[in-house]
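Example 5.3 — Unc-93 homolog B1, TLR signaling regulator
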Amino acid sequence: LTDVPTLCDIMEEFLGPQSEYNEEEEERKYYRRKRLGVIKNVIAASVGAMIVYSVYMGLLQMQLILHYDVTYREVKYSNLGLEDIDHKMLMGINVTPIISLLYTPVLIRFLGTKWMMFLASGIYALFVSTNYWERYYTLVPSAVAIGVAIVPFWASLGNYITRMAQQYYEYVNYKEEHVQEQKKLPKGACHRYIIVFQSVFFIIFHLSFVFAEFPMCFVLNGYLHENEHTLCNVKYCGANISGIIPGFNTTVLTNLPRSMLLIMVESGLMGFAFLAMIIFLMLCGAAYRPTEEIDLRSIGWGNIFQLPFKHLRDYRLRLLCPFFIYSGFEMLFAVSGFSLSYGVCNLGLKKLWLLIVVYGLSCSVFSSLSLCLLRLPRWVCLVSGAVVHVVLLVALMVWSFPSKNPEYQGALLTISVLWGLGTALNKTGISTLLGMLYAEEKERLDFVYTIYHWWQAIAIFIVYLWSNLPMRAKLSILLATLLLASYCYWVMERRLAKDVRPRLPRIPRPRHKVTSHIVWWISPQWINLASQRLD
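Solution (predicted C-alpha cells):
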C-alpha cells in the first residue's frame, strides 16, 4: 500500500517542473510561429490588394468599352444618357480623393489599419454590385464611394507592409532589451525587412494588370470589330495627335453581348471581390498591439486631423512631393495615354489586352530588382527608374507614325516592357524609401503614406483633366515633372548626407480617459468621508 501514489504525489508530478520542458526552445518555436504569421500577413495583404484591383480595373475597362459603343447605348439604354453617367462616374473616382487628406488619418486611427483595408475592399465590391443595375443612382454614388476609399486603402496598405517589417524584426530579435521594453527601434535596424516585404508586395500586386485583362481577352474580344472598321478614320498615331485617338469609330461591337453573359462575368468578378474581403478579414493579422491601437487614438481627434498638414514641414516629404506626383502621372499614362494613343491607335482595340498584360508582367518581374537595395545605396532604385523613363519620354516625343501598321507591334511591346521596368523601380523605390526614412517612427507611418497617396491622387486627377491636350504637351509635362522630381530627390539626399535634422511635428502623449463607474466612487466627497471614518 505504501507504493500506491497519493493524490498529492499525482498533483505534484502534474504541476511540478517537467524534465523534458525546455523553456528556451519553446520560446524559440513561439517566435518562429510569429515570424511565419508575419509572412502570411504580407502575402495575404498583397494577394487581397491584387484581387481587388484586378476586379476593379477589369470591370471598369469592360464597362467603358461597352458604353463607348453607340449601338449598345441606343439599344439597351436609349434614354439614360450613359455617356453623361460615365463622365460623372469617372469624375467621382478622380475628383473625390482630392479631399482625402482631411479624413484618411482619422478613418485609419478610428477603424485600425486592418479594418480600413477590409472596409475599402467592401466598397470596391459595392462598385461591382452596382453594375447589375446600371443607373445614375447606382453607378455614380458607388464611384464616389470608391473615390473616398482609394487614399485610405493605399495608405493602410503602405502602413501595413511597413509595420509587418517592424514586427518581423522584433520577432527575430526578441531577446534584445529595446524590443522587450518596446522602445524605439535602432536606426536602420529593420531596413532589410522593409526592402524585402515591399518588393514582395509589388511583385504580387502588379499581377493585377494581367488578371484585369481576363474579361477583355476571354469575353469581350469576340464581339469587337476588326481594325479596318474601328480605325478607318484614324490617320496618324503617336506624338502628333491631340486627345486620345482622333477619328476612332464610335461603333466597336460587331453584335451586342448577351445580358446573361455579362451577368455571369459580373457575378464572377463579384465572387472574387468577396474573396478579397475574406482574405483581409481572415488572413491579415493586426498591424499594432491592442495597447498601441489605444495609444494611437488617444492623442485626440483634433491632433490626428492636423498632423498630416504639420508633417509637410518635414523637408524630406516636401522634396519627395514631385516624385509622388510623377508616380501618379506615369502609371495612368501607361494604361491610358500610351496604350491608347500609341498602341490601340495602331494595333486596334483587340490588342489592348496584350499591351496591358505585357506592361503588368514587366512591372511584376522587375519589382524584384528593388532587392538590390540590400547591397546597393537606396537612391539606385529611384534614379534608375527615372533614367529609363527619361529616355522613353524623349523617344515618344519624336515618334509619330501612320496608323494600321502591324510592323510597329514589336516596338510598342518593347516600350511597354521598358515602361513597366521604370514603373516597378519607381513604385517600389518610393514605398521602400518612405519606410526606411520613417522606420523608427511607427506612430507617423499612416500620416506619411497618406501624404504620398494623396499627392498621387492629385496627379491622377490632373491626368483626367488633360485628356484632350496634344500628346507632346502631355509628354512635356511628364518629362518636366520627372526632371524636377529627380533634382528635388538629389537635394533631399544631400541634406540627409549633411545630417540636416528634419522638422518633425511633436505627437502629443496619449490621454487615457477612465470611463468606468469606479470614478464616481473615488470622488473627493467619498475620499473625505472615508478618511473621517478612519479617524
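Remark. The two ends are 61 Å apart (CA to CA).
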